[in-house]
Amino acid sequence: MASALTEKLSRLVKEMRGQARITESNVQDMLREVRMALLEADVALPVVRDFIARVKEKALGQEVVGSLTPGQALVGIIHKELAATMGAGVSDINLAAQPPAVILMAGLQGAGKTTTTAKLAKLLIDKRKKKVLTVSGDVYRPAAIEQLKTVTKQAGAEWFPSTPDQKPLDIARAALDYAKKHYFDVLLVDTAGRLAIDEALMREIQELHAALNPVETLFVVDAMQGQDAVNTARAFKEALPLTGIVLTKMDGDSRGGAALSVRTVTGAPIKFAGVSEKIDGLEVFDAERHAGRILG
Ligand code: GDP
């Protein structure tokens, strides 16, 4: 599938040799192939349309310099545009707040919030030498609280206890109070997810956001979710001022088109990529490399 695109593009590139300019006629076939590739990579259709229109506008009439053919020049433009779209914005984690810097984790159930919370705790301890506290506001799944306890221990961070009979808002306030009293640099707040978007969930996380005033509100989304990621992203963006995205399960075999969709829909920078189930499986998102993966 991926190699098919590269093959098709190189064939079209060959056909375009000897033309000095990217024109309406030679750009059309190339863009059709790229459109197919983006759809195969599970980028949402409206996002694909938008992207292709932007590339076409940039490419048309462009002089082709040096030894490049129009085809090669177009491939360059597409790659650059894809990387720029996904990589625009600040990508480092922001801790610029009166300590504790609060990081709120949002997303659907199964997206990888709890795992990512612990991975992020480990990263902040190892790379930034921070004192990190985690807490779970997921009172609907008792196993979720235990799960956070286990992975927090693996990360070497401290876990703040909570129980299913408490209200998420009370848990969050108590954790914040504890973090202040004990001089934690960062408080990571894991929240409840649902299998699908629902109003009660959104209201709850909005209340948490208002009470905690987090410096980062990270939207955690499964890269394997493909087309569905767009609707989820839109709902979370409408409910919360998202400051960043974490794409999980990038070690799966999806081409990762969700990155382009989610970035476009939310406008928030993609900060991290989850690349394994393990505690150290979190990487800073590399837009350049990911553009290559999407295009195949
Ligand atoms: P939550 O419901 O959003 O808290 O999701 P969890 O953190 O419980 O993760 C759901 C499942 O996805 C678990 O089995 C995790 O081990 C797995 N998972 C999370 N992130 C990744 C990742 O980056 N790669 C892989 N392969 N699995 C992941």
Task: Report a brief summary of the structure.
51% of the residues lie in helices and 13% in strands. It has helices at 2-15, 24-40, 45-59, 70-87, 113-128, 142-155, 168-181, 199-212, 228-239, 258-266, 287-295, and strands spanning 101-106, 132-136, 158-160, 186-190, 216-222, 244-248, 270-274, 282-284.
Fold and architecture overview:
It is found in: Cytoplasm. It catalyses: GTP + H2O = GDP + phosphate + H(+). GO terms for molecular function: 7S RNA binding; GTP binding; GTPase activity. GTP binds at residues 107-114, 190-194, 248-251. Keywords: Cytoplasm, GTP-binding, Hydrolase, Nucleotide-binding, Ribonucleoprotein, RNA-binding, Signal recognition particle. It is a single chain. The chain starts with a helix and ends with a helix. α2 (24-40) packs antiparallel against α3 (45-59), α3 (45-59) crosses α4 (70-87) and α4 (70-87) crosses α11 (287-295). It has 11 helices and 8 strands. The protein has helices spanning 2-15, 24-40, 45-59, 70-87, 113-128, 142-155, 168-181, 199-212, 228-239, 258-266, 287-295; strands at residues 101-106, 132-136, 158-160, 186-190, 216-222, 244-248, 270-274, 282-284. 51% of the residues lie in helices and 13% in strands. The radius of gyration is 22 Å and the shape is elongated. Strands 3-2-4-1-5-6-7-8 form an 8-stranded mixed β-sheet, with helices on both faces. With 296 residues, it is of the alpha/beta class. The relative contact order is 0.16. The structure holds guanosine-5'-diphosphate (GDP). Guanosine-5'-diphosphate is lined by residues 107, 109-115, 193, 248-249, 251, 274-277, 281.
